[in-house]
Amino acid sequence: MLAVRTIGRKLRSDKRGVTVIEYGLIVALIAIAIMGALRSLGGGAGGMWSKLDQKVSEASN
């Protein structure tokens, strides 16, 4: 039982885990922001590629 208490005290005093969680949350928020930006820009980019495909098809005929 004493060993469990000692390990518990060591884990509470270790701050590295907290830092890793904070960085993980920051990365997750950045990924969500990137996905939102790509989703909002996706329609415009899709239309651009369709127009380009149409022009290439017309030029090759």
From TrEMBL:
UniProt keyword annotation of Membrane present: yes
InterPro entries associated with the record: Flp_Fap (IPR007047)
Keyword vocabulary terms for this entry: Membrane, Transmembrane, Transmembrane helix
Native source species: Sphingomonas cremea
Membrane-spanning ranges: 20-41
Taxonomic classification: Bacteria, Pseudomonadati, Pseudomonadota, Alphaproteobacteria, Sphingomonadales
Protein name: Flp family type IVb pilin
Pfam family, one: Flp_Fap
